[in-house]
């Protein structure tokens, strides 16, 4: 059964145990046996196939010769190209709307209040859209792309504020930092240096929950008490929590890669590629914002 938490569920391809097959170690294009750890290879637990051996190309085996299963292309099954195209589309929409917001919503003294208000409104709307998609049973491409567009407006405004009023070049530095983290986690994951299992999953979920609750308390103190709240997002503590936030974002990237890999191995339906794009976009936005905040803190302390 899928988790419905938009931040922590990393919604993807698990159907029964919620861990996307973490109890097994399937590889894309390799064998995937019909065991309890394979959510797509159970006669009762696989909602996409009545016969796991007839429908799941990764569960077919030459029982007479003991040959390893093959991975033929099957219409309607998710492929890596599907994930790449959907993710590129989602991020492309986000980048375009961010650029338009940067250009059309000036942050000079005369307009910053209006622009900042639009940015905050876009952030709240993006949160609502993310929640709606997270509670839906199926991916909605229109909803995901709308979320990306709205989130892009928020990122464009906040990036323009930091870049033009706090630290020149901050947006590009944050983009480069996000790309570096993505590339680093991908290399580490493919090399086997990061092992995503139940223990890793549980640790990341607990750490992220504590992090977000702490930041929420800090925000409440800032709203009702003024200033920087408890100081968790500014000064030396802000730097520490910013680094922690980036590390957590990197851990979520590893979870995203694992779910994509399991979805490919277990023959997830093609529409699940939109959920992969949605999860990756959420994670990359998180990492980018943490980098942007860190850059702003370092520039303010100079």
From TrEMBL:
The lineage of its organism: Bacteria, Bacillati, Actinomycetota, Actinomycetes, Kitasatosporales. The chain crosses the membrane at residues 83-104, 116-135, 142-162, 174-193, 200-224, 236-255, 275-298. It comes from the Bacteria. The keyword Membrane applies. Residues 1-54 are annotated as: Disordered. Keywords: Membrane, Transmembrane, Transmembrane helix. Residues 35-54 have a biased composition (Polar residues). This is Bax inhibitor-1/YccA family protein. The keyword Membrane applies. InterPro entries: BaxI_1-like.
